[in-house]
Amino acid sequence: MLLNQCELRKIELSDRDTATIFVRNYLRREGAGRDLSVPVSRSAMTDWTRELIQRGLGAIDSLLEQNQLSYQQIALCLPTGGMVNMPAIRDGLNERFGARAPRLSNGDRIISEGAAWIAHDDLHLGLAKPIELLQPDDTYAAVVPIPFILPRENQTVPAAKAIYHCVDPRLGRASFSFARPRRPRPRDACSDRQAYGTLHVEIDETAAPLMERLELNMTIDHNYVAHVDLHSTMRGHRLSAEIFDLEFTLTFPSADDHKGKSAGVDENADMSDDTTDSKALPTHTGGVCLRSNITAERSWQKVPGDLVTQYCPSWFNERAREYSDWQKQEWVYYKDCPYCHRNRYDFRIKGCGDSKCLWKREYPTVSAVGLSRIQP
Question: What letter does residue 58 receive in the DSSP assignment?
Fold first, then answer.
């Protein structure tokens, strides 16, 4: 009865300045004082809940800041739940959005009404943004595209099953960098991404580019946790991790629903048995750009320019023109002068006394101090 009275008076204080919590026969005693009667003011309740309200409104501020949006860019703020009728919360929303945060007559019931509609229409939740993988050309490709229907209670569904190849195995590891777009429906594969983290799978460093197969299996459980399993087929290294921060949304019926399968899921993909302990996928921040060395395509155009010539000596033949622009730039960058056998960096730091040095054409103003320390 006391909890019920508190709830009713809290609602009453949304429209009045004072209210009284009253419970008859609250104490087991005779005479006066047996009934509980406590007056409560709106200002007192605001003081008690000020920290909670500030935290809630601060979450709105953080969400807009993370997505680089201003209050003016929001067309509609739809307040839901009975708490939005509290004057302190309404004032905070009005301060941020003005008339774009309307007061709903059914604001205290709108969540339960919406849940009832969802259950009646048998709607599912799906990924709001795809799970993507960084490619060697610094673009992103979807591993789990959208739309993708997420599992229901006690279900685990296969999300991705693919084979990748390492374009540069010299380091002895293949780097899988998972991410999602920061904004819904990015216009291109180079838009800003939010990193989930990077996994490094050990591979055969003596293998040729694009030789060893790297198997990726991903499943998503009913807690909306993506389980990643990576396996190098030659080295035999297996690595497992979990992605927790998936963004999801409500999906609506489409013309393809009669097929009876989840959109974006390979119908031939099998559930894999996870025999290793899963670890949380680490996140990373910083100013250094990680270059991916894995690709789903067996394309020599993705192999680093200074490595491809070791396996295809005539790759940069101008007549064939099979190379990419980035490969050519990288090949030239790491190429040594055929006369003095110095790379660009050594020449810029130390100079060169060889009159035939190719780098003299590009760096003609190297200091004489550097030249004096070099023997031709």
Answer: H
Consecutive 10-residue averages of pLDDT for the chain (376 residues): 88 85 84 83 87 90 88 88 82 89 82 88 88 85 88 90 85 89 68 85 83 87 92 87 88 58 41 40 43 69 73 73 72 73 72 75 52 40
Angle between helices 87-97 and 42-66 in degrees, nearest 10: 30
Judge whether 226 and 242 are in contact, CB under 8 Å.
Answer: yes
Q: Shortest CA distance to 201 belongs to which of 236, 170, 244, 167? A: 236
pTM, entire model = 0.57
Give the end of a domain, one of 295, 327, 360. Answer: 295
In this structure, what CATH number is given to the domain that contains residue 240? 2.60.34.10
Helix and strand counts by DSSP (H, E) for the chain:
9, 14
Clarify whether residues 36 and 15 are in a common domain: yes
Residues 95 and 131 grouped into a single domain? no
**Distance between CA atoms of residues 160 and 267, nearest Å:** 10
Q: Structural domain tally of the chain?
A: 3
Residues 129 and 93 both lie in one domain: no
Closest CA to 162 of 200, 217, 105: 217
Q: How many CB atoms lie within 10 A of CB 148?
A: 23
Q: What is the residue range of 49's domain?
A: 2-100
Separation between Cα atoms, residue 121 and residue 13, nearest integer Å: 37
